[in-house]
Amino acid sequence: MFAQSNDWVFATQPQGIKLWDGDTPLTGDISDNINVWDAGTEADEDFLNNFPSTQFTAPNQTGPNTGTPDSNTAFRNTGRNIRNYLTAYLAYDAAAREFTLTITKADREALHNSGYVTPGILVVHTQPNALFEEGAPVRANGLESLAEDGWLQAIYDWYTETGSTGALLRLSSSYSVLSPGVAYTQGEQSPFFTRGEAVIAGSGLEELAEDGNADIAHEYLNGLDGVTAAKSNTGVPPGESITFEIDVEEGKRLNFATMFVSTND
Ligand SMILES: [Ca+2]
Ligand SMILES: [Ca+2]
Ligand SMILES: [Ca+2]
Q1: Are residues 207 and 129 in the same domain?
Q2: How many other C-beta atoms lie within 10 A of the C-beta of residue 114?
Q3: Are 37 and 155 in the same domain?
Q4: 135 & 253 share domain
Q5: Which residues surround ligand 3, an ion (CB under 5 A)?
Q6: 70 Cα: distance to centroid of ligand 1 (angstroms)
Q7: Distance 39 CA to ligand 1 centre (A)
Q8: Which of 107, 145, 172, 180 is most deeply buried (CB count within 10 A of its CB)?
Q9: Is the pTM of this model over 0.85?
């Protein structure tokens, strides 16, 4: 959040910053990837020119989430020059395999509203709009209280919420449903697929991989000598689990397959 404002936040484009170009990490000044956004949750007062007259900016307001609703609820780019507010620098330590993001507040001492940069949240994701969608109202993910009050806990709790089995509910691959799956016992070699080779015709792997249909694979595997298969009839929503029961001969190996649903195959 840009304090002192009503609901301005500093953030990248909704799709985030691409950290890798092939094997090359992104490093250096990344300020141009960051915008000054209006969250669209609270009407702007004239905080840049007459801060003392504002009633609902943090910290002039009497409490959090206090102010007139924004007549434009779209999360939108103010078009302001980010370098008048902050600069951002990304470094990469190849030995430790760690990125470090350093945000430095601009020198605004000569300006009426010198402002400050509140605590913030950083997420790693594969989604196009992980934190917000440009042009749409903010979602109920805690971003409003970060934008209006510089309060971090709600958005942090939302992104780190876990399901009943401890898996993260948000972001990255944990967001995708897993299809009904098939579990099976085998000898040394998988009867279902061989790495580097085409899918076996009639094995049901194509239907499983593309459509989340485990029935054909289940029937195919149970028809093979020395293989026992079990299937689930339901998929797995984020944070939940499925259980297979399968009888295993001594010395056999266990294998399973399920579709990562938000993919082609
Ligand atoms: Ca606003
Ligand atoms: Ca306010
Ligand atoms: Ca509000």
Answers
A1: no
A2: 13
A3: yes
A4: no
A5: 41, 65
A6: 5
A7: 6
A8: 180
A9: no
Give tens-digit pLDDT for 220-240.
999 999 999 999 999 988 778
Q: Which ligand is nearest to the CA of 144?
A: 3
Total structural domains within the chain:
2
Kindly give the distance from the C-alpha atom of residue 64 to the centroid of ligand 2, in angstroms, as a whole number.
6
**Percent with pLDDT over 90 in the chain:** 82
- Is residue 154 in a domain? yes
Distance from residue 43's CA to the centre of ligand 1 (Å) = 4
Ligand 2 centroid to Cα of residue 69, in Å, is 9
User: Measured in angstroms, how far is the CA atom of residue 64 from the centroid of ligand 3?
Assistant: 8
| 183/135 same-domain check | no
Contact criterion met (CB below 8 Å) for 109 and 168: no
**Count of all residues that appear for the chain in the document:** 265
| Tens-place pLDDT, residues 56-115 | 998 899 999 999 999 999 999 999 999 999 999 999 999 999 999 999 999 999 999 999
pLDDT, tens digit, for every residue of 10-43? 999 999 999 999 999 999 999 999 999 999 999 9
In a domain, 60, yes or no: yes
* Smallest-distance ligand from the CA of 44: 1
Strand, coil or helix: 16: coil
Nearest Cα to Cα of residue 221 among 265, 179, 259, 181: 181
Regarding whether 29 and 150 lie in a shared domain, the answer is: yes
